[in-house]
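Assess this one:
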Amino acid sequence: MFKVSYPDGSSREYESKKSVKELIADISQGLERASVGCVYNGVILGKHDFVDEDGAIKVVKFEDEEGKQIFWHSTAHLMACAIKRLWPNTKFAIGPSIENGFYYDIDLDEQLSTDDLEKIEKEMKAIVKEGPVFERKVLPKAEAEELFKDEPYKIELIEDLPADEEIAIYTLGDYVDLCRGPHLENVKDIKAVKLTSIAGAYWRGDEKNKMLQRIYGISFPKQKELDEYMERLEEAKRRDHRKIGRELDLFSFREEGPGFPFFHPKGMLVRNELERFWRDLQIERGYGEIKTPMILNEDLWHRSGHWDHYRDNMYFTKIDGEDYAIKPMNCPGSILVYEQSMHSYRDFPIKLMEFGQVHRHELSGALHGLFRVRTFTQDDAHVFMLPSQIQEEVIKLIDLADELYNTFGFDYTVELSTRPEDSMGTDEQWDMAIDALRKALDSKEMDYEINEGDGAFYGPKIDFHLRDAIGRTWQCGTIQLDFQMPQSFELTYIDENGEKQQPVMSHRALMGSMERFFGILVEHFAGKFPLWLAPVQVKVLPISEKFEDYALKVTKEFSDAGIRVEYDERNEKIGKKIRDAQMERVNYMVIVGEKEAESGKISVRDRDGNERSDVEFADFLSELKEEIESKKID
């Protein structure tokens, strides 16, 4: 008896062993239509392979996440095969699939260029035409060491394995690689490849090791899919928040503070609007705002568990001879606020919010604009609750997340992340916490994926992955349930029987990092912020100096009404003023000339080029206020 599982979740059982060739007629989404194939015990099956009794076949398509990883991992090996042909002395490190494509780290004396990428692509196409197949073998460790004796990086990987470990290898033509698989059966399924870049990478990510060359790439079963991907990539470059940040004068980075962003006046206008909106939304829902110190005694971080699990990412200092740490997280400070008072069961839930600035040590190579920095502000909140309130409060947090993301037009997906290997607490506590989050999601009838082993060290979590305007996903929000810190800090409340009990604590950050969320919004809107967020909402453009008085009067009226307005006083032609305002992504341009000055009205042009004339100022101001109040995003 064996079972075939399909991507749609359905399955079918078979009574006796069959060859995959025989199964093709039965499998409606089978090997010949699957792009990737059928996986059995982690191995791609060939059409003439047989399945033993009690086996389980999974039909994998390129559209499935597992299918993409198999496809891209196979392409990494195809690339390595091509590199070996072109530069026979190359030493190979690792070549995994990644979120979007694959890479291979190689050790080669010659520094490769972008022209070399084209040579490698050409050789890969030649190999595909030859049509070699991936063949898998399993060797004893000693044989594997002999086979890879001239490959130092492979030998190091093998030496890390137990002595009795059997080593899986794959051959593709005359190229042999150390790999667990699975791989495609035939490279002819790889119809479209693009090698995208070359970067430096230390072996095993350790800067003490040798710098290798890392070649990145992407591949697809069809050329059309590659073309669409490259088009999305170009659009992503146009939306790069670092580029738009410079153009709109929102923020900058300086060598004097690597990884520490500088927000400029216009950037702070956007950021302050974000904080004001988010603060008001939370206060309406019963949160109290707190502010906790940035530097706290080192002993606190031992008690919280961060010392054992996070100290490599922390900064330290001394005060009066005592050891202190700059906070990497806000939760211990929130706990100290809770400890200041005795609490009754009637007080719960207790909701404490904080825009808390934290510092975390990141390697310089990992820094990336506002997306990966060394200091950032979390929109943190800690909800202390009774055990009986867990499901109700988690549902409220999910509803709050939904309202937040809908405000900016984000679709999102949800993951439930379970216990990691490096964690605190008992199995019973973890099971209770995971079950509570699962029940909350189920009660909302939400679709979610289980992300095994990716919870925080103190508890499981619900993660929200946002999808932006061009289809990219970003992990932003998180709701984490914690039984550990209340226990470590001996937090208590008085129950209805007058006895001390331990509360449950949730950690919640839905924007996540204010800086990262800011950067995501810049790219999501391509710098064209909705009116309520825009740093400059209206720009007044006089056609010539003759109409300066009326233009200044209009500008003042906008400013007095609370509209963020700028006046373009330059002695330039009106066409240039309009073009420059469009480049600055200003929402509305108010054009003032002789006709407007005489009539006391205005002409309005939006950033998409739509124009209106003879507009009453009061009517337009009313439209602006309505658009701001509604937080319209279209």
About this structure: Residues 28-33, 47-53 have pLDDT under 50 and may be disordered.
